[in-house]
Amino acid sequence: MTASLTTGQGPATDEQAAFMAALDASAPRKEEPAAAPEKTVGVPFLEKKVTLSARHVNVFYGAKQAIFDVSIDIGKHEVTAFIGPSGCGKSTFLRCFNRMNDTIDDCRVEGEIRLDGEEIYAPEVDVVPLRARVGMVFQKPNPFPKSIYENVAYGPRLHGLFSSRGELDDLVEHSLRRAGLWEEVKDRLDAPGTGLSGGQQQRLCIARAIAIQPEVILMDEPCSALDPIATAKVEELIDELRRKYTIIIVTHSMQQAARVSQRTAYFHLGRLVEVDRTDKIFTNPAHELTEAYITGRFG
Fold this sequence. Notes:
Elements: E1 6-7, E2 10-11, H1 14-26, E3 41-42, E4 50-61, E5 64-75, E6 79-83, H2 90-96, E7 107-115, E8 118-119, H3 127-133, E9 134-137, H4 148-159, H5 165-178, H6 182-185, H7 198-210, E10 216-220, H8 228-241, E11 246-250, H9 254-260, E12 263-268, E13 271-277, H10 278-283, H11 288-294
Helix pairs in contact: 4-5, 4-7, 5-7, 7-8
């Protein structure tokens, strides 16, 4: 502070200015976060049971780079959580796994991403069957303006996954049961999906995703618009689904990441800082940026 400091009663005296300067000097200052490492720390790669692998992935929106040289393996039949501050690139990177970024005109993805060893960005890859193998559940529930039954049946119809109406009925019921929704809707399958509660709509979207029998389910903050009770139901469902599917979840809730995931990846300003077992990340992180984030020093 300087001697030109003013108060409600006119210019500050030298004594007042000195006092305010001392207060300012003693005030706690927010620490500048450490720089992200050039190389991801922890255990980004797995020796076996790898469903998805990414190597040296860079993502650009026009001339602006959003993801910097990210490499990681995603383990089979486990939940991997992507965490980090808003704008750190975790959702952008998530959408690389089913090429949803292709729908953005000025988005460019470089590097290599493989699903069961197959390069998904190869020129001959058709994104329609790819997105059947890698399903997605979005932040806000988005049921189609159709009946509950037709919401679930839409994907199997599109991909020709049944040979009779009875087989389709069984597939719809099975998907709704796996999503924990069958008992709540079995007597009103012709009712509009948009008439369900928010939590029920999200579980309907999960049923729609698993009806096409994917290998991987991507979840982009699936509980951010839900109340605590609905969130708990979705989290229980995620734990059940991982026995059959590989799941990647983006979440702003570190508590949620700790509850539902087996591995956690921390992103910062477009870089993958650290990957490890979830319990290790939250109890003994290897990088100071990770520690600063999970302890709330920034976020």
